[in-house]
Amino acid sequence: MRRKTATMGHQRTVTYEQGQWELLGNFRQMAAGVMYSLGNAGFESYVYGSLARGDVSQGSDIDIIIPGVVRSFMVELALDEHGITGRKLVQATPGGLAKAHIYLPGNTMVTFPLVEPTVRELDFYAFGGQLGPDGLEDVVHNRVPGVDKRLMLIEPMPEGHVETPLSDLPPGSVARKVGVGQDIVEERIRVLNRRARVGITGVYLDRLLAPDEGFEAVLEEIAARDSLVRRRVRGR
Predict the structure, then answer these.
(1) Residue 94 belongs to domain spanning
(2) Is residue 163 a part of any domain in this protein?
(3) pLDDT digits (tens, 9 = 90+) for 71-123
(4) Could you tell me if residue 193 is inside a domain?
(5) Nearest 5°: phi and psi at 2?
(6) Does residue 212 contact residue 76 with C-beta atoms inside 8 Å?
Protein backbone atom coordinates (compact mmCIF):
# COMPACT_ATOMS: atom_id res chain seq x y z
CA MET A 1 0.00 0.00 0.00
CA ARG A 2 1.24 3.47 -0.85
CA ARG A 3 2.01 6.04 1.83
CA LYS A 4 -1.13 7.47 3.36
CA THR A 5 -1.88 11.16 3.24
CA ALA A 6 -3.88 13.68 5.31
CA THR A 7 -1.82 13.23 8.48
CA MET A 8 -2.52 16.63 10.02
CA GLY A 9 -0.31 17.90 12.83
CA HIS A 10 -0.22 21.11 14.82
CA GLN A 11 0.25 24.66 13.63
CA ARG A 12 3.91 25.58 13.36
CA THR A 13 6.29 28.04 11.76
CA VAL A 14 8.99 26.65 9.46
CA THR A 15 12.11 28.73 8.83
CA TYR A 16 14.03 27.91 5.64
CA GLU A 17 17.77 27.39 5.65
CA GLN A 18 19.85 28.53 2.66
CA GLY A 19 19.72 25.03 1.19
CA GLN A 20 15.93 25.17 1.04
CA TRP A 21 15.97 28.40 -0.94
CA GLU A 22 18.57 26.97 -3.31
CA LEU A 23 16.54 23.77 -3.81
CA LEU A 24 13.41 25.79 -4.56
CA GLY A 25 15.37 27.97 -6.98
CA ASN A 26 16.79 24.93 -8.80
CA PHE A 27 13.38 23.28 -9.18
CA ARG A 28 11.81 26.50 -10.37
CA GLN A 29 14.59 27.02 -12.91
CA MET A 30 13.83 23.58 -14.35
CA ALA A 31 10.12 24.37 -14.43
CA ALA A 32 10.74 27.75 -16.05
CA GLY A 33 12.57 26.10 -18.95
CA VAL A 34 9.61 23.86 -19.69
CA MET A 35 7.11 26.70 -19.28
CA TYR A 36 9.19 28.89 -21.59
CA SER A 37 8.90 26.24 -24.32
CA LEU A 38 5.14 25.99 -23.74
CA GLY A 39 4.77 29.76 -23.79
CA ASN A 40 6.69 30.04 -27.08
CA ALA A 41 4.18 27.58 -28.55
CA GLY A 42 1.27 29.72 -27.33
CA PHE A 43 0.27 27.69 -24.29
CA GLU A 44 -0.62 29.14 -20.90
CA SER A 45 0.86 27.11 -18.05
CA TYR A 46 1.26 27.10 -14.26
CA VAL A 47 3.27 25.22 -11.68
CA TYR A 48 1.19 23.83 -8.85
CA GLY A 49 1.85 22.26 -5.47
CA SER A 50 5.02 22.70 -3.45
CA LEU A 51 6.88 24.64 -6.18
CA ALA A 52 4.21 27.33 -6.01
CA ARG A 53 4.05 27.30 -2.18
CA GLY A 54 7.79 26.98 -1.58
CA ASP A 55 7.83 23.95 0.75
CA VAL A 56 9.81 21.68 -1.58
CA SER A 57 11.92 18.71 -0.57
CA GLN A 58 14.57 16.68 -2.40
CA GLY A 59 11.86 14.31 -3.64
CA SER A 60 9.45 16.98 -4.88
CA ASP A 61 7.93 16.63 -8.34
CA ILE A 62 7.77 19.47 -10.86
CA ASP A 63 4.08 19.59 -11.76
CA ILE A 64 2.89 21.86 -14.57
CA ILE A 65 -0.70 22.36 -15.72
CA ILE A 66 -2.05 23.71 -19.01
CA PRO A 67 -5.56 24.74 -17.88
CA GLY A 68 -7.49 24.30 -21.14
CA VAL A 69 -8.12 21.78 -23.91
CA VAL A 70 -5.30 21.93 -26.46
CA ARG A 71 -4.10 19.83 -29.37
CA SER A 72 -1.87 17.24 -27.76
CA PHE A 73 0.54 16.86 -30.66
CA MET A 74 1.30 20.59 -30.48
CA VAL A 75 2.17 20.24 -26.79
CA GLU A 76 4.39 17.28 -27.57
CA LEU A 77 6.18 19.26 -30.28
CA ALA A 78 6.80 22.06 -27.78
CA LEU A 79 8.18 19.62 -25.22
CA ASP A 80 10.21 17.46 -27.58
CA GLU A 81 13.45 19.31 -26.88
CA HIS A 82 13.15 18.42 -23.18
CA GLY A 83 13.05 14.67 -23.90
CA ILE A 84 9.62 13.10 -23.37
CA THR A 85 10.00 9.90 -21.33
CA GLY A 86 6.36 8.76 -21.23
CA ARG A 87 2.72 9.64 -21.93
CA LYS A 88 -0.33 8.52 -20.03
CA LEU A 89 -4.09 9.09 -20.21
CA VAL A 90 -5.67 9.31 -16.76
CA GLN A 91 -9.25 9.63 -15.52
CA ALA A 92 -9.79 9.34 -11.77
CA THR A 93 -13.51 8.45 -11.88
CA PRO A 94 -15.95 7.52 -14.69
CA GLY A 95 -17.41 11.02 -14.72
CA GLY A 96 -14.15 12.78 -13.92
CA LEU A 97 -11.81 14.83 -16.03
CA ALA A 98 -9.84 12.91 -18.66
CA LYS A 99 -6.28 14.25 -18.59
CA ALA A 100 -3.06 13.82 -20.51
CA HIS A 101 0.14 13.36 -18.56
CA ILE A 102 3.43 13.94 -20.35
CA TYR A 103 6.53 12.94 -18.40
CA LEU A 104 9.90 14.62 -18.73
CA PRO A 105 13.26 14.05 -17.01
CA GLY A 106 13.78 15.40 -13.50
CA ASN A 107 10.44 14.19 -12.06
CA THR A 108 8.66 16.69 -14.30
CA MET A 109 5.09 16.19 -15.51
CA VAL A 110 2.94 18.37 -17.77
CA THR A 111 -0.80 17.84 -17.45
CA PHE A 112 -3.67 19.13 -19.59
CA PRO A 113 -7.38 18.27 -19.90
CA LEU A 114 -8.65 16.27 -22.87
CA VAL A 115 -12.24 17.44 -22.32
CA GLU A 116 -13.51 20.83 -21.21
CA PRO A 117 -12.84 21.15 -17.45
CA THR A 118 -15.28 22.63 -14.96
CA VAL A 119 -14.31 25.49 -12.67
CA ARG A 120 -14.32 23.03 -9.79
CA GLU A 121 -11.91 20.72 -11.59
CA LEU A 122 -9.50 23.59 -12.22
CA ASP A 123 -9.86 24.66 -8.58
CA PHE A 124 -8.22 21.34 -7.68
CA TYR A 125 -4.87 22.76 -8.80
CA ALA A 126 -5.33 26.15 -7.16
CA PHE A 127 -6.23 24.35 -3.91
CA GLY A 128 -2.66 23.08 -3.69
CA GLY A 129 -1.15 26.40 -4.76
CA GLN A 130 -0.73 27.60 -8.34
CA LEU A 131 1.75 30.03 -9.87
CA GLY A 132 2.38 31.32 -13.39
CA PRO A 133 5.78 31.63 -15.08
CA ASP A 134 6.25 35.33 -14.32
CA GLY A 135 8.49 35.90 -11.34
CA LEU A 136 9.49 32.27 -10.72
CA GLU A 137 13.03 33.50 -10.08
CA ASP A 138 11.92 35.44 -6.99
CA VAL A 139 11.65 32.48 -4.63
CA VAL A 140 11.31 34.64 -1.52
CA HIS A 141 8.51 36.99 -2.51
CA ASN A 142 6.69 35.07 -5.24
CA ARG A 143 5.09 32.19 -3.36
CA VAL A 144 1.40 31.47 -2.85
CA PRO A 145 -0.69 29.75 -0.16
CA GLY A 146 -1.99 26.25 -0.77
CA VAL A 147 -2.92 23.00 0.95
CA ASP A 148 -0.58 20.00 0.98
CA LYS A 149 -1.46 16.29 1.14
CA ARG A 150 -1.42 16.32 4.93
CA LEU A 151 -4.31 18.82 4.81
CA MET A 152 -2.03 21.56 6.13
CA LEU A 153 -2.52 25.09 4.84
CA ILE A 154 0.91 26.41 3.84
CA GLU A 155 1.10 30.21 4.05
CA PRO A 156 4.40 31.76 2.90
CA MET A 157 6.22 34.32 5.00
CA PRO A 158 9.59 36.01 4.31
CA GLU A 159 11.60 33.51 6.39
CA GLY A 160 9.71 30.36 5.33
CA HIS A 161 6.09 29.44 5.96
CA VAL A 162 3.39 28.88 8.54
CA GLU A 163 1.45 25.63 8.32
CA THR A 164 -1.94 25.19 9.92
CA PRO A 165 -4.14 22.05 9.95
CA LEU A 166 -7.40 22.54 8.09
CA SER A 167 -9.18 21.12 11.13
CA ASP A 168 -8.34 24.43 12.87
CA LEU A 169 -9.81 26.58 10.09
CA PRO A 170 -13.31 27.17 8.68
CA PRO A 171 -13.54 25.90 5.06
CA GLY A 172 -14.66 29.35 3.93
CA SER A 173 -11.50 30.92 5.33
CA VAL A 174 -9.32 28.37 3.53
CA ALA A 175 -11.21 28.96 0.29
CA ARG A 176 -10.59 32.70 0.48
CA LYS A 177 -6.90 32.28 1.26
CA VAL A 178 -6.20 29.99 -1.70
CA GLY A 179 -8.73 31.57 -4.07
CA VAL A 180 -11.11 28.67 -4.72
CA GLY A 181 -14.73 27.79 -4.04
CA GLN A 182 -15.62 26.41 -0.62
CA ASP A 183 -17.05 23.26 -2.21
CA ILE A 184 -13.63 22.14 -3.48
CA VAL A 185 -12.15 22.65 0.00
CA GLU A 186 -14.83 20.45 1.56
CA GLU A 187 -14.42 17.85 -1.20
CA ARG A 188 -10.64 17.65 -0.85
CA ILE A 189 -10.95 17.29 2.92
CA ARG A 190 -13.30 14.32 2.42
CA VAL A 191 -11.09 12.70 -0.24
CA LEU A 192 -7.80 13.15 1.61
CA ASN A 193 -9.25 12.03 4.94
CA ARG A 194 -10.54 8.89 3.23
CA ARG A 195 -7.08 8.26 1.80
CA ALA A 196 -5.66 8.58 5.32
CA ARG A 197 -8.00 5.80 6.45
CA VAL A 198 -7.81 3.36 3.55
CA GLY A 199 -4.77 4.43 1.52
CA ILE A 200 -4.64 5.56 -2.10
CA THR A 201 -6.89 3.50 -4.36
CA GLY A 202 -6.71 3.09 -8.12
CA VAL A 203 -8.10 5.39 -10.80
CA TYR A 204 -10.73 4.55 -13.41
CA LEU A 205 -8.42 5.01 -16.40
CA ASP A 206 -4.65 4.76 -16.29
CA ARG A 207 -3.58 4.11 -19.87
CA LEU A 208 0.05 4.28 -20.95
CA LEU A 209 0.31 5.35 -24.60
CA ALA A 210 2.49 3.63 -27.19
CA PRO A 211 4.84 5.85 -29.24
CA ASP A 212 2.51 5.77 -32.27
CA GLU A 213 -0.69 6.60 -30.33
CA GLY A 214 -2.27 10.00 -29.83
CA PHE A 215 -4.21 11.11 -26.76
CA GLU A 216 -7.38 12.16 -28.55
CA ALA A 217 -7.59 8.99 -30.66
CA VAL A 218 -7.08 6.73 -27.63
CA LEU A 219 -9.74 8.60 -25.63
CA GLU A 220 -12.23 8.28 -28.51
CA GLU A 221 -11.45 4.58 -28.77
CA ILE A 222 -12.14 4.10 -25.05
CA ALA A 223 -15.31 6.22 -25.23
CA ALA A 224 -16.64 4.09 -28.10
CA ARG A 225 -16.81 1.05 -25.83
CA ASP A 226 -17.35 2.67 -22.42
CA SER A 227 -20.63 4.56 -22.01
CA LEU A 228 -19.50 6.26 -18.79
CA VAL A 229 -16.44 7.75 -20.45
CA ARG A 230 -18.45 8.52 -23.59
CA ARG A 231 -20.94 10.58 -21.60
CA ARG A 232 -18.21 12.89 -20.31
CA VAL A 233 -16.28 13.05 -23.58
CA ARG A 234 -19.35 13.98 -25.61
CA GLY A 235 -20.82 16.26 -22.97
CA ARG A 236 -24.05 14.40 -22.23
Answers:
(1) 17-147+202-227
(2) no
(3) 999 999 999 999 999 999 999 988 899 999 999 999 999 999 999 999 999 99
(4) no
(5) -70, 165
(6) no
